[in-house]
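Problem 12. The chain below contains 359 residues. Write out its predicted structure in token notation.
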Amino acid sequence: MGEACPRKGRRPLTPTLRGALRLLSAGVLVALLGSTAGAEPEDAPGASLPQGPGLATDHPGDRGIELADGVLVAESFEEGTVADLSKRWSEVKNPGGSVLRFVEDVPAGACGKRALEMRATVGTNTGGHLYRTYDERDVVHLRFYVKFLDKEYIHHFVTLGGYRPATRWPQGHAGKRPRGDERFTVAIEPHGRGGRHAAPGVWSFYDYWHEMKRSADGGHWGNALLAAKPPPVPLNRWQCVEVRVALNSAPGLRDGESALWLDGQPVAWFRKGARRGPWTGMGFRLLESGGEAFEGFSWRTDTRLRANMLSLSLYVTDRAMRKNGVQDPTGRVVRVRFDHVVVADRYVGPFPAALSPRR
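Solution.
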């Protein structure tokens, strides 16, 4: 079990010292890997992706990370009761008080002693969520730890995005293509792809934005974007997931991006020029070679639309299970645990596997 994780951490490092430490970490990484790829973390669109050490390296186990420059959200679920979550999240969905609970289980190297468990029971409820806004940014990273406990398919999961104007609750938009000045959403989700992948599925993006493709039924359902080798979601193991969204720098430009890391290693980078397969209303898959060059994201037509919201969600339906080949999903239980959620304007990365001794 981890150590206590107080909200008031040590004084954050100055930008100069933090930059020096990042360069030192990058130098060590280059020496070990013999490569400069990702050696100097930069969060401007088009830069190489960082890997391994990140902001979390300065805050072992996330101790004090809420005080670090550029951190917009830091949640370790160590404070108060489930009811107290409403003090930090603007909407808490917990049907019947039976969906959300704290459990004594944390990732290796974490400070703290507990995580948040969400539980959905098909036919009884569809799960729950936490939702909140944060200070607007054009580049945003979401890092969280997650553990799936049940070999079951889900419907929707964790979402980053931007609403203009910002709201204190999620907006309903399923099947509707947004305008380029009102909203965009980037969800990271396990997809079963019609049962082709064992439950919970493989990691995939599920995105809504003004240039998304029309679905076969005439609506605009989220476009699913997959890595060249879609990584399976592990069961009964904590995994560090990090998502990056970089908005296009000006209307009409296609320098917007999204990226995915698992346990500190980049596994998918959707950017202009990346090789992709056919793009339909179902989305597309990156390719290691061949295919076509991705046009790049124009996430918005108005730079006043910026990233400003996070939904931490477990949404489970019998419809999604049936689409993945489950004959009778009624009564099936899906449990997922979340911990150490951080939203920042730079790469966060996983924390070390072991806590350093407290001074």
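Discussion. Residues 15-344 form a domain with the Jelly Rolls fold (CATH 2.60.120.200). Students who got a different answer should revisit the alignment rule from Section 12.3.
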